[in-house]
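User: I want to check something. If I give you two sequences, will you return the structure for each one separately, not as a complex?

Assistant: Yes, each is folded on its own. Here is the first sequence with its structure:
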Amino acid sequence: MSELIETTAPEMLYGRRGQLLIVDDEREILKSLRRQFRRDYDVYTAESADEAYSIMLQTPIHVIISDQRMPGVSGSEFFSRVKDDFPDAMRLLLTGYADIQAVISACNDGNIFRYVLKPWDPSELASIVRDAFSRYMLTAQNRVLLTELQEANALLEARVTERTSLLEQANERLRQLVEQRDIFIGMAAHDLRTPIQVVQGFTDLLLHTRTRPEEIRDFVIIIQETLRDMLTLLNNLLDITAIESGKILLHKADVNVREFIARVVKLNRLIGEKKGIHLRTELDPDLPRFSFDRQRIEQVLNNLLSNAFKFSHSGTEVTLRVQKLDGEILFTVIDQGIGIRADETSRL
């Protein structure tokens, strides 16, 4: 073979020397190639394909130089196996003209990076080896970049999934707030009906020519109190904190139950009389003072009485009953209307 010379350009892979494996069944060739490349690379040698494969299982080899003609397994056959198990390793095949067809077939199958005809020129072989290491570095870098890209893509997908989940949660929360807002607005519209009727009724009385002068002051006070209650009702029902929580806070206070009922009756009696319905009361004689949210209970009773008047016929009677029962106060509204269908009572 031709005289060997040393390579001059060191090959560095990510801060470490390249790993070069030389496979040949002739020891003199192994020694010569080892001398040529040992300055620039970590050189491993093997006299057979099996020995070379064992080295690759233990050491990360970057470039392989193998002779084509070896006993047992040829270089192209060895590279075919290496391609599947170590796809990144660059493969260089030393061959003579007699084996050129096998080499071409190996090239077509992608089993070798380059082939070198015997006898080779040492400087040309050194250049080919440098190219092989450069190609390995490029392949390794591309693989790292691909891994980083896949990781970045996975992270991006995770963030998109997280943001999508947060957006879905925000949309669901918004939907709930809209539903709660609609419920509260519906409550406000319903609960305002009775005080509006009260104001309308007493303003009609003020305009009536038979209204006595001493009654006018009482009517105006009732109208003022009702309007004040309406404003409080609106502020409470449209309070954004209440809408977000879906709850209305109760403000309990000590209440004189008889005076409280007298006010409720005073506000609602006129509504019933306009429809020809008499509002009567049944009160326990020894009703105690009791702690509850005066405004909310008044809303409840106003709604019950309003519905009783709405679904009762003229000439009938609506009864507001108040009883002391086991340390509690029981309010009952009784009318002579059509009542609630039996199949709908479960919805109360």
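And separately, the second sequence with its own structure:
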Amino acid sequence: MANILILGAGSMGTAFSFPCSDNKHSISIIGTHLENDFIAEINLNKKHPALNLDIPKNVKFFKFENLSVEMKKKIDLIVVAVSSKGIEWASNELSKVLKSNTPILILTKGLAINNNHYEILAHKVDRILKKKGIKDVNISAAGGPCLARELANRNHTSVVFANSDISVANQIKKLVSTDYYHIFTSTDVIGVEICAAIKNIFAMVMGSSKGLNTSAALLQQSINEMIMFTEKLKGKKETVMGLAGVGDLYVSVKGGRNSQMGEYLGQGMKFNEAKKTKMDNVTVEGADLALEIGKKVKNDFDIKTLPLMISMIDTISEEKPLKIDWKNFK
């Protein structure tokens, strides 16, 4: 039995605790500083409100103030399951209590800009922890198609864990794999994280489609652009064509918030109008990413190379109606 600490009490962090629980591990879920009331509700009702499922008996929820106490235990794996906006906060807080070389698995999907360079979240966490004096950092990243509710309901789910040291990814795989949670491993950390992030932009594009013929054409172009972008940042084409790329894009289009936003944009709504009137309290990861990396993408690529990505960036960042640039499809 292992001790697993999950930082973030949202749907994905909690869903991840289910296969961990089924493997008889002891799981502590620590809420963020913004989740105290949420944690109190879970502990009162023994049910996760968003997942609407009972909490396994070997999963315990704690308010953020208990992080240092829980970290004094022997922790075999730390799982980061905060939002992409919370990654810097989580890294800073972990740096205060982290023991060197404790394995970290990042479930959060995103991409940042640091000193005018693209930065995957694994590298961002690594950079912050080392800056704070944590010398030995061991970070893996998760990617692939995984809806929290389906994982928590124990539906068959296949994902990718990536680490430059494949033996570490395989150790985590052994720890949390079940007969329904199928884990593949990769050394392509950059490719896995880039696909996990940018697929949300293309899911918005796909969501805007009004017909199957159009969807098929947008899918093909989305894959082309994901390959070009990923290879430019030194990720691998085969990662795009696997679970972390095409697989995750499929799930995001079929059942995600990004494709829902894309549907509103496809109806002619501008982004801020759609966000305010239709999805006011909903995080749209693809839109957040477009705002984060949009300026650099437009500096590094042109409309002829990434017609879909740049069209969506303009739609989000410049409040333009969505206009698909069909003439530049490859």
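Because they were folded independently, the notes below concern the second chain alone. The mean pLDDT is 95. The radius of gyration is 19 Å.
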